[in-house]
Structures are given as structure tokens and as C-alpha cells.
Amino acid sequence: MAPPTPKQVPKPVQRLLLLRHGESTWNVEHRWQGWLDPPLTPAGEEQAAARARVLAQDSFAPRAIYTSDLQRAVRTAEIIAAHVESPVMTDAGFRERFGGDWQGCTGTEIDERWPGLRARWRRGEMSAPPGGEQDTDALARFDSALTGVLAHVGTGVGCIVTHHGILRLVATRAGVDVHAVIPNVGGFWFDVVGGRLANAEPLE
Q1: Edge-to-edge strand order for the sheet containing 88-90?
Q2: Which of 26, 48, 72, 150 has a C-alpha 20 to 30 A away from that of 104?
Q3: Which one is predicted more confidently, 2 or 195?
Q4: Which domains does the chain show, CATH number per domain?
């Protein structure tokens, strides 16, 4: 009788949690932020703390929490890190898409000055706001920063705190519907497949 075939042990799966920052003062004003740097609101700080408490209850222990260098993301990361006892590391590669001419404008102001363009943007028909960062450029800098995170995390779990625009781009590339809404401190779990993020699983 032939000896039993040993079971194949599956390789550990690298997993990353990508989170949007908490509510900022400009989120409240429905103002396009881009690379401009408004702070969190008190409600945004509490959102981050609430998310952190849930993650800590789930024994979330990332090797590090990486974050955009913009203060609304950094502060969110700091609040979460205090609960899960992980270091915070900033990287400008994870900052929001550069918003060009729309930065600092409210949605109403954009609609008045660029009629119809914001609707086209929401439908995924534009690769950049006027004067803003192209999809390909934003993804390229994100991917470059991601390479360093994956090397540091190894086969463990990592976390990146970023922004709605860049998170939407990354999630859409991984198969998420372009119309998906990502709330403050919402986000996705991703598997790492071939150095890219795949199999997006939304947070509750």
C-alpha cells in the first residue's frame, strides 16, 4: 500500500487593513481636501477611538500602523495605535489624491464652476479632477509605498490609514464597485496576491 500523501500546508496569507481617516472639519463642510490639511473634528476623534476599541476587542495586533502624512490620517492612526499598542509610521505615498483645481472647494462650488463634472467623476468617467492627479500616478505612488509595508509586515497583518479618494481607487482596482461608499473610519480587508491587494472585504 502506498504511503499517504502528506497534506499541503497552505502558505500564510498576508492581510492588510486599509482604513479611511475619521471625520475632518472639511468633511463636515463637504469641502474637497486633497493635499490640503484640515484636522479631525471631535466627532472624528471619537470615530477613530470607537473603531480602535472594536479592533482591540478582535485582538487586532498589526506590526505597524502606516499612515498618510496628512494630519487627519496621522491623528486617526495615533488613536488606533494607542489602543492596539502598535507603532505609527508615516509615508506621503499614502496621502490623498492631489485634487487640483477642486481643492478647497465645496461640492456646490464645484458644481457651479464645473457643471456636470462632479457627476462624471462619481461615475468613474474621469481619471482626474481638473489639474489634479491622474489615477495611474496616484496608484503608482501608493504601490511604491505599499512595497515597503509588505516587506516590513512579512506574513503578518498590517494596517494603513489613508483617505477616501485613494482608498476608492485601490478598492476599485481590486474589484469593488466604483459607486461603493466608504464612510469615515470605514475600509476594507485585503489579501496580498503577487504584491497587489485583492479580495476586498468591507468592514462592517
Answers
A1: 88-90, 65-67, 157-162, 15-20, 187-193, 196-202
A2: 48
A3: 195
A4: 15-98+134-202 (3.40.50.1240)
Reported as a single tens digit per residue, the pLDDT across 11-55 is 455 899 999 999 999 999 999 999 999 999 999 999 999 999 999
Contact (Cβ atoms closer than 8 angstroms) between residue 76 and residue 41: no
Instruction: For helices 42-57 and 71-84, give the axis angle rounded to 10 degrees.
Output: 30
Secondary structure E strands in the chain:
15-20, 65-67, 88-90, 157-162, 187-193, 196-202
pLDDT of residue 180: 86
pTM of the model: 0.91
- The DSSP 8-state label assigned to residue 175 in this structure reads T
Supply the residues annotated as catalytic. 21, 96
